[in-house]
Amino acid sequence: MNNFRRIEQKYILNEDEYKKLMSRIKSHIKKDIYYESTVCNIYFDNDRNDLIINSIEKPVFKQKVRIRSYKVPKKEDNVFLELKAKTNGIVYKRRTELKLKDFYKYLDTKELPKTNNDQIMKEIDYLFNQYDLKPKLFLAYDRKSFCSKDDETFRITFDENLRSRSTDLILENGDQGTLFTEDKMYIMEIKSLMGMPNWLYSVLSELKIYNQSFSKIGSIYQKFKEEEYV
To answer: pTM (2 decimals)?
Structure first.
């Protein structure tokens, strides 16, 4: 799928909260077709970090540009070039698939590569030129994905071992990076078209687990800035 429109909510869980939650919702969910993956991303921005800083300020509209794979890829492998925007709480994601080596050629030559959606590629190319985008941060995390047994469009993902690096910004060079925190932390994302089902709302209320505003790229940028990496 090249286009997504959905509501996304994020929750930060510790180990105890994660175990209690899973024990209560396991009868309602099943493993997604892509249950386990290591999500690798490179985010793009300009020298002023305009896109990241704008995202941190929580505006009505914000957008991100990234390239993503669901494992450590080789240059011959396909990856996803994505434009993710959020406005008034609704997330819109447009992405196109291409070979990693073709994307690197695009960065060098600015010639549009052949992808599975040329229109989306043109839109992303416009942003690359408008903002003078370049690789800025690498992020990786280990993801488990579930969907509702009643509605496979309703998805829950749990990301752990959030790690990053601000150098060696090449996907095929591995998923290693500095851990965001040494404490066990799960980033739960609820992704839906229509909203949260009652069974999940009840469990979250019972466990006093509340929605939080958390941007992976924004949080890591702020941490790196404090440590003078960016």
So the answer is: 0.93
